[in-house]
């Protein structure tokens, strides 16, 4: 127990300091802000909620589910969804490996006579080749990369109906007048952190996200506190931002779903049972 706790503390220290962590013989690095736009393009695939997928995928390990979903879409509609590609892309970014889609997909190995089922993938880093099974990916790699980069993995125990309701609430309460662009966000955080945008490029993404949230929380705390003290506003359920340094406990907001997931699954979402795997080799469905 003592060794386990010490290992956890050391892992947390490394994540807080932005240091690399070695797991399964591979060294994982937190992404820096120089990859921020690329990270934003692929991160949602990493945090897909399995329980919101059709049952035939929801019962699989994460990597197996994403691959089977991709395979079914291609074989039935001729079109790729793109989630598996994004997952592997983020994996390579975390390992500081150059991502070549053709090469990466050539290292996907499936079970005998079943291209729809992944046996493992192979990754080579610094001359060391490692086999990653779907079970390894779920148990070690997915949570580590998420934690290193400030991603929150969804709680699979949440009721899908509640998830849908909260997603609809979020959509209905989004501001429609903001012009969102990454350059402006980066400049704003750099300005309030008293550094240049070039300096901010060396930050890890998780450090940037935490600083951005800290700035936002401080401004909301000041705003609400002043309004409360002046008597302008009385909050029925208490100040929504009572602390400048801590977030309010969130009961059920880890509701991240990949954008466009439902739409992309329409063509294959009505399948009641797993289809028989075609015999074409895996390289032919890239």
What does this structure look like?
By secondary structure, the chain is mainly α. The chain has 12 helices and 5 strands. A 3-stranded antiparallel β-sheet has the order 3-4-5. The radius of gyration is 21 Å and the shape is globular. The termini are far apart.
Question: What order do the helices and strands come in, and which of them pair?
Answer:
Layout: H1 2-17, E1 21-23, E2 26-28, H2 36-46, H3 55-58, H4 62-77, H5 83-94, H6 101-105, E3 108-111, E4 114-125, E5 128-132, H7 134-148, H8 160-172, H9 182-192, H10 197-200, H11 205-230, H12 261-265
Antiparallel strand pairs: 1-2, 3-4, 4-5
Overall pLDDT metric: 82
Whole-angstrom Rg: 21 Å
- CA distance, first residue to last residue: 45 Å
Number of helices: 12
């Amino acid at each position: 127990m003592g060794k386990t706790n010490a290992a956890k503390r050391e892992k947390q220290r490394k994540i807080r300091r932005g240091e690399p962590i070695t797991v399964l013989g591979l060294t994982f690095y937190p992404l820096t802000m120089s990859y921020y736009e690329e990270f934003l393009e692929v991160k949602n695939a990493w945090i897909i909620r399995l329980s919101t997928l059709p049952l035939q995928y929801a019962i699989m390990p994460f990597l197996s589910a994403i691959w089977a979903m991709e395979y079914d879409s291609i074989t039935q509609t001729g079109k790729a969804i793109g989630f598996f590609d994004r997952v592997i892309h983020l994996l390579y970014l975390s390992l500081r490996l150059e991502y070549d889609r053709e090469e990466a997909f050539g290292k996907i190995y499936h079970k005998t006579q079943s291209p729809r089922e992944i046996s493992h993938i192979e990754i080579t880093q610094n001359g060391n080749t490692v086999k990653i099974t779907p079970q390894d990916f779920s148990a070690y790699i997915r949570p580590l990369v998420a934690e290193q980069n400030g991603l929150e993995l969804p709680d699979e125990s949440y009721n899908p109906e509640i998830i849908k309701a909260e997603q609809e609430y979020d959509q209905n309460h989004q501001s429609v007048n903001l012009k969102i662009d990454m350059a402006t966000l980066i400049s704003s955080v750099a300005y309030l952190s008293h550094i240049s945008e070039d300096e901010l490029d060396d930050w890890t993404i998780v450090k940037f996200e935490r600083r951005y949230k800290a700035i936002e929380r401080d401004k909301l705390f000041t705003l609400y506190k002043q309004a409360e003290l002046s008597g302008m506003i009385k909050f029925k359920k208490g100040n929504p931002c009572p602390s400048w340094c801590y977030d309010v406990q969130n009961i059920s907001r880890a509701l991240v779903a990949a954008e466009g997931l439902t739409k992309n699954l329409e063509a294959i979402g009505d399948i009641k049972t797993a289809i028989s795997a075609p015999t074409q080799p895996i390289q032919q469905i890239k």
